[in-house]
Design goal:
Elements: H1 8-17, E1 33-34, E2 40-41, H2 50-61, H3 69-76, E3 82-86, H4 95-104, E4 110-113, H5 120-128, E5 138-140, E6 154-157, E7 171-175, E8 189-192, H6 210-213, E9 222-225, H7 233-239, E10 243-246, H8 248-251
Parallel strand pairs: 3-4, 3-10, 4-5, 5-6, 6-7, 7-8, 8-9, 9-10
Antiparallel strand pairs: 1-2
């Protein structure tokens, strides 16, 4: 039996007449082309490696530097509780390094940059001093123009900045009563505060009875804020919170909890 040896011309013809194309559904189908001998040959069929093609197409469609939130949720929800650190509104020594440590060490999942008294230039400098791979886990409470300059997690809306910016990849929002917990589909999550007496704001007292909240929270959406410390995580999780946000427990007198 003789074995046919394919020439470079044969290989060129095969590659020319069976050119793979990408479709939006990721099916990895092929064009219908005319065979070299004049016959019509339908190559418009699904290859065996469809699943592999779909994964490749998804990777191609994903924009460089974009934040894959489903992936982040998959990581954080392995312990079924998201942790967020909100920056101090005041200037903090070596703040960029501390934020980087929080994120890279896994001590927190996201950092919210809340700097109402800082200029956009100061906030820009802060972000620039945080390593690029960590920036997709930063969320802004203002200075939304910086979303055009950096690949960040998105914007957090509050009474000071209530309007959603056009350039935000995702949104979160502040809530201060159970009645505020509506129309949540457009948000990654919302914060509910103050759950406990505030650590960072003198005289800012709790507005909730944690015992009466259980069963009233939309699942997987509400983050506890206000007077939260790590020793209260279990209580908050049992009450139905998806996570907790800390401010005073990190930047106040209890810095050793997170910076040891």
């Amino acid at each position: 039996m003789t074995t046919r040896k394919y020439t470079n011309e044969d290989i060129h013809q095969q590659s020319a007449y069976r050119t793979p194309i990408r479709r939006n559904d990721g099916s990895g189908t092929y064009r219908m082309e005319k065979h070299p001998d004049g016959r019509d040959r339908n190559y418009n069929k699904r290859p065996d490696c469809t699943q592999i093609g779909q994964r490749i197409n998804q990777a191609i469609r994903r924009r460089p530097g974009s934040c894959d939130f489903s992936r982040i949720r998959g990581i954080t929800m392995t312990r079924n509780f998201i942790t967020i650190v909100i920056t101090s509104p005041d200037e903090v020594s070596d703040e960029a390094s501390r934020i980087s440590e929080l994120l890279s060490s896994g001590k927190t999942d996201f950092v919210h940059i809340r700097k109402p008294y800082s200029s956009i230039r100061d906030v820009r400098n802060l972000i620039e001093n945080i390593p690029q791979p960590l920036r997709s886990r930063l969320r802004l409470h203002g200075h939304f123009a910086l979303l055009d300059e950096f690949s960040l997690a998105g914007a957090h809306l509050n009474s000071r900045c209530p309007d959603a910016p056009y350039n935000a990849r995702s949104l979160t929002r502040s809530c201060h009563s159970l009645s505020d917990l509506h129309d949540l589909d457009r948000y990654e999550y919302v914060t509910l505060s103050p759950l406990y007496d505030s650590i960072s704001k003198s005289g800012y007292k709790s507005a909730f009875d944690i015992g009466t909240i259980k069963g009233k929270l939309p699942p997987g959406k509400v983050i506890a804020l206000g007077g939260v410390t790590p020793d209260r995580f279990s209580e908050l999780k049992e009450a139905g919170f998806a996570g907790a946000a800390l401010l005073g427990a990190v930047w106040g007198n209890q810095q050793s909890v997170y910076f040891d």
